[in-house]
């Protein structure tokens, strides 16, 4: 039997900041953002949104379609952890009303960890093919104000249901790994924003892309570049996918057509960086933007600063479009975000809290799940709409 993604759903925040407005405020040419970074705007969380509320929104939409689900594992991938001990997945487990006999765990390795979660899920289903695994990637990219990383912020969650005989994408055993200790991007436990060596991070990303691809080809000698019909890249900003695509071509001494990545960037261009969810928003975009992908092979490049990368492949399943109608809400959600002024956005950015003193959050956004604040150091979540 094949194993892979049988369903997928997404969520993003209630607010958005236009990069035209940010450029205007900074006195920067907006073309730097639209052309130089390939970004138009980015999602901004309200005070009552966090990785848990985003994850619960995406996952509840997915689980509602599967009343008879067989979920026994909940793997929560993030680099925006809300607690240094408890898994954010446990909050989601409660908000979704899942049964107690579920294994719940959080995984971290920058933007890479959702891929590790997915591969762990495949391993579990190999042993227990009657069961299902809920993998959730949820992140908020939040850089310090007035830094080069600021225009590459964003937020979102992707929930994926992994099972045998999947309806969307069957993951293949083709996979290649890469790890190198690089200080390109990291967030110490006392900091709410990352430290970034931006230009080093670009080089580290490109090295890792080539390294993971080479390892995959060593492990799967029968596979050729021509066997891959579309490439999906981690997209901290969509121009990065173009850089990676070009770099892969140069590395292999071939010219790679831009059409192989074009359809995967429409969502992230409007969403911004969603760290470990970003590659899977690229997948959501790829599947919704092209109805002719049945039996086509996707090549996934997953990268997480620090740095770890993996290249793996999956085959789109016949009939997949039937299972994607619900993703229509994706564009509707993006359009429904309320536009912040730069002043409102900066105020929201300043009001973010890392501490766990008592506080309550204003009801900011029309969300399905709310982060209500902290009582006695315990984070409080509510079901909203
Ligand atoms: N018109 C058109 N293009 C313009 C322009 C203009 N007026 N002005 C500048 N540009 C272009 C530049 O030529 C450049 O394009 P190329 O790289 O193709 O030459 C692009 O706009 C960006 O310009 P700069 O390099 O000068 O931009 P910067 O130094 O201000 O910052 C950045 C860019 C380093 C990516 C910064 O946004 C950053 O640090 N971001 C966070 C880190 C990041 O996203 N790294 C990505 C790899 S790591 C990763 O993927 C993990 C992760 O998620 C964080």
How would you describe what is shown here?
The chain is 34% helix and 27% strand. The protein has helices at 19-26, 30-37, 51-64, 88-96, 113-127, 198-219, 238-252, 259-262, 268-271, 278-289, 328-336, 342-350; strands at residues 3-11, 15-18, 41-44, 71-77, 103-107, 132-141, 154-164, 169-179, 185-186, 195-196, 230-233, 297-304, 308-316, 338-339, 359-360, 369-375, 378-383. The strands form four sheets. The protein has a nine-stranded mixed β-sheet, sandwiched between helices. A three-stranded mixed β-sheet has the order 3-2-14. A three-stranded antiparallel β-sheet has the order 15-16-17, with helices on one face. Helix 4 (88-96) links the parallel strand 4 and strand 5 (103-107). The model has no long low-confidence stretch (mean pLDDT 96). The structure holds acetoacetyl-coenzyme A. Residues 29, 31-32, 35-37, 111, 148-149, 151-152, 185, 196, 198-199, 201-202, 205, 234, 236, 240, 273, 275, 303, 305 line the site of acetoacetyl-coenzyme A (CAA).
Topology:
Elements (H helix, E strand, L loop, with lengths): L2 E9 L3 E4 H8 L3 H8 L3 E4 L6 H14 L6 E7 L10 H9 L6 E5 L5 H15 L4 E10 L12 E11 L4 E11 L5 E2 L8 E2 L1 H22 L10 E4 L4 H15 L6 H4 L5 H4 L6 H12 L7 E8 L3 E9 L11 H9 L1 E2 L2 H9 L8 E2 L8 E7 L2 E6 L2
Parallel strand pairs: 2-14, 4-5, 4-6, 11-12
Antiparallel strand pairs: 1-7, 1-8, 2-3, 6-7, 8-13, 9-10, 12-13, 15-16, 16-17
Helix pairs in contact: 3-4, 6-7
This protein binds acetoacetyl-coenzyme A.
Acetoacetyl-coenzyme A (CAA) binds next to helix 2 and helix 6.
